[in-house]
Amino acid sequence: MNEWKKWLAVSVCCLCPWTARAVDVQVQDVPTRTVLEGLARSGNINLVVDDSVQGALTMNLHDVTLEEALQAIADSQGLYYEKSGPIRTMTGPKAGKGVKTFHTWSLRYADPAVLKEAVQAAVPEADVRCHSDTNTLVVGGTHQMQAAVHSLVKRLDVPARQVDVSVEVASVDDSLLKQTGMEWNWSTVEGGADHDVFSLAGTIHALEEKGRAQILASPHMVASNGREAHILIGDKVPVQTEHLSGKETAVSTTYEEAGIKLTYTPQIHPDDSVTAQLVAEVSTPVFVPEMKAYRIATRQARTVVRLRDGEPLVIGGLIRREEVEHFRKVPILASLPVLGKLFRYHYKSHKNTEIVLVLKSHVLLDS
């Protein structure tokens, strides 16, 4: 036995003065503890070998680092190898089952709170804590638990896939769309092949060129897989609310969003198709003379649809009612006192316009 120790120590020492250097390890039926002790002395490292480490080792390694050699021994013998600062430990299978260690995972992409839930579901016996401020996950458990967590973190701590979404928001006279024979079913266009998504988008652009439709906005947004993305084309309007407190009436003012809002939540599939949850909303401020304030009239459409990469989607049926004031007069005569009223004409009319949204989703390539 002493001869084996002497041969191993001398051979590895010559080949491995530092742990980063490449080494050759050639042993046959040598006690595992002897091999580990020889590697520790030759590499000048702090290695604690537990009494549970038993058995003999036959190994032929060429041009590997000392760290790789130790890990190879652990894997081949079913041992638990851990490095904590300058100290390394090697324990046997039975001892390793009861040894609880803590490991800190520095996450690059994943949300620590979300990953904590995933780890607790997969390894319920592990003690898991997350720190959002440092984007880290601290896991306490046995070597087997740590190995399972390592595999899980490696799979989940990856960049989220993303979708580039382009949106065209058009305002079209409601009567013009009815002339085209379009009937909306919230998220799809009915009417057969003659009125598919592509032809409707073309119809809107043709109406725009003739001045019969208006493109209100063409925003872009990037949505991460499974995360909500929002677009607001509008403003915040003061809305007053009355509260009755005893015999007194109190009025509070809040600011609510008015305009066109779109919420888009994608679920990206392996074939680059996207299942999108969409909520489109048109909110119009309506002035209430009695209150001298605004109220918000809202129209909303919700849908879940699966689209191929680049396939357009049209959302319609969002009617916006507009009040238009008209004022006509006869020059000079309308300015006359008293009689001027006879030469002025003031009236209000209402106009219904339909808000149509055309969306295109493109899955971004993984970097």
TrEMBL record:
GO cellular component, one term: cell outer membrane
PANTHER family on file: PROBABLE GENERAL SECRETION PATHWAY PROTEIN D, TYPE IV PILIATION SYSTEM PROTEIN DR_0774-RELATED
Protein name: Secretion protein
Keywords: Membrane, Signal, Transport
Compartment(s): Cell outer membrane; Membrane
Residues making up the signal peptide according to the UniProt record: 1-22
Domain NolW-like: residue ranges: 106-162
Family: Belongs to the bacterial secretin family.
Taxonomic superkingdom: Bacteria
GO biological process assignments: protein secretion
Domain Type II/III secretion system secretin-like: 206-364
